[in-house]
Design goal:
Elements lengths: L9 H12 L5 E10 L2 E12 L10 E10 L4 E9 L3 E6 L35
Antiparallel strand pairs: 1-2, 2-3, 3-4, 4-5
């Protein structure tokens, strides 16, 4: 599933529409669990097929997405998407450090002070 924040770019919306309309042609496969970057992840491979002729294509288009998620971190650690129209896209979360951050990162500097920012401007119209 493709999600965006705010208004999607035209290509993003088009892609989302294609995947949604091809969902009845898709299937998901559980890939089990393994360790990536030192954390346990669970994988799912989803394959969507856009039938020939649906978008002007003369042959079926197969889109394969593989996503590995960490239940502990509640985030994607690895994903790979293969789409013959756009090529291959890979995301990998690396250098995962699960220790507490250095407390000095959260110390307010001694010379820190709060200042008032500019005040909002209110425009009034005559009615």
């Amino acid at each position: 599933m493709l999600t965006t924040m705010g208004a999607p770019a035209p290509g993003v919306f088009f892609e989302k529409h294609l995947i949604t309309s091809a969902q009845d042609e898709g299937n998901s496969e559980d890939l089990g669990s393994q360790t990536m970057e030192g954390v346990i992840v669970s994988g799912v491979r989803t394959t969507h097929t856009i039938p020939a002729g649906q978008i002007g294509n003369d042959r079926p288009i197969t889109i394969v997405t593989e996503v590995w998620t960490s239940p502990d971190l509640k985030t994607v650690v690895y994903s790979k998407r293969s789409d013959p129209r756009m090529g291959e896209q890979t995301f990998r979360l690396t250098n995962i450090v699960r220790t507490e951050p250095n407390p000095s990162l959260f110390i307010v500097p001694a010379d820190f002070k709060i200042v008032d920012g500019p005040q909002p401007i209110f425009y009034r119209t005559k009615q």
